[in-house]
Amino acid sequence: MHHGTDRNPQQPFLTPEERAAIDRGRWFSALSPSLRHDIFRLGTVTRYAHGDLIVEQGELAQHWFACASGAIRFRRTSPAGKLVTLAYVEPGIWVGEAEVLHSGPNTYDAHAHGRTTVLGVAEAVFRQLLREHTEFGEALLTLQARRMRFLYWMMEDMATLPLRARLAKHLLHLMRRFGPRHVPPGDEVPLGIVLVQDELAQLLGCSRQRVNVELKSMEREGVIRMAQRGIIVRQREQLETIAQQET
Questions:
Q1: What angle do CA 19, 89, 219 make, to 5 degrees?
Q2: 245 vs 41: CA distance, rounded Å
Q3: Could you tell me where the DSSP H helices lie in the chain?
Q4: Strands 189-190 and 72-77: what pairing?
Q5: Model confidence over 121-146: pLDDT tens digits?
Q6: Which of 88, 98, 90 is nearest to 24 (CA)?
Q7: What pLDDT does 155 receive?
Q8: Start-to-end C-alpha separation, the chain
Q9: CA-to-CA distance for 164 and 142, rounded, in angstroms?
Q10: Continuous segment of H or E residues that includes residue 44
């Protein structure tokens, strides 16, 4: 991973909030206490400013890593030179195991989105964990299986849902991952991450103009509100209804 902007000469540590964010991740929380302890003990903490490069496409993958705070944006440059945003991941999500296991190059760029903390596990340590914890290999297979299932769901949505439904579904997905954890019923819910319409369009595989039309339509209907600090969900149930419309 690339060096962050933390100028502290001491090795930085995770804050209690950052550690808790990783610990409550669905996949990570299912690991044994001893394996979780070793990952925390052997990992390296790096802090990044908004836009800082974390890993670079084409460079040899050397770390398996998790977002501990902030967000990580993944992009890929196609052979034709087109830059495409692939995903944003929230605290608690681990990435990079396929590239480390394959001993190959990174297949994407990863940048910090906002002030971001990353816990990285070097390749040698990653393989040490595989040797010392018999459960780790099966757990990584489970992690990969979940990624494949999510990919299949995305492909199915692309084939069966109109853009309006896919946009609503993606807004709900981002809200659950980045929005506040506890919101009183009926309250407006901020998306929790600020994305420009070009990035939303790339995530959905369509043009910015089409995304703009659908967002304005949802805003007129009172389902969402466009604010300076991002999209606000005003009627969550209505957004869920839109997400289920297949025609």
A1: 120
A2: 47
A3: 16-23, 26-29, 33-42, 97-102, 123-132, 134-160, 163-178, 197-204, 208-220, 236-243
A4: unpaired
A5: 999 999 999 999 999 999 999 999 99
A6: 90
A7: 87
A8: 44
A9: 32
A10: strand 44-48
Look at the block and give the residue holding tokens 């681990």: 94
Half-sphere exposure of 172 (CA within 13 A, CB side): 17
> Residue 160's pLDDT is what?
86
Which amino acid, residue 29?
S
* Cβ-Cβ contacts under 8 Å for 166 (sequence gap 6 or more): 157, 158, 204
pLDDT of residue 95: 95
DSSP-based three-state secondary structure for 129: helix
Number of helices (H) and strands (E), helices first, in the chain? 10, 11
Where does residue 219 rank: exposed (0-12), middle (13-18), buried (19+ CB within 10 A)?
A: middle
Contact (Cβ atoms closer than 8 angstroms) between residue 46 and residue 4 = yes
Q: CA–CA distance from 226 to each of 162, 167, 196, 239 (Å)?
A: 22, 14, 11, 14
**What's the pLDDT at 9?**
43
Alpha carbon distance 175, 241 (integer Å):
15
Task: Give Cα separations from 52 to 39, 75, 77, 148, 213 (angstroms).
Answer: 24, 13, 17, 28, 32
User: Token pair of 160, please?
Assistant: 């069966």
Domains and CATH numbers, the chain: 16-157 (2.60.120.10), 162-243 (1.10.10.10)
Which stretches of the chain drop beneath a pLDDT of 50?
Answer: 7-9
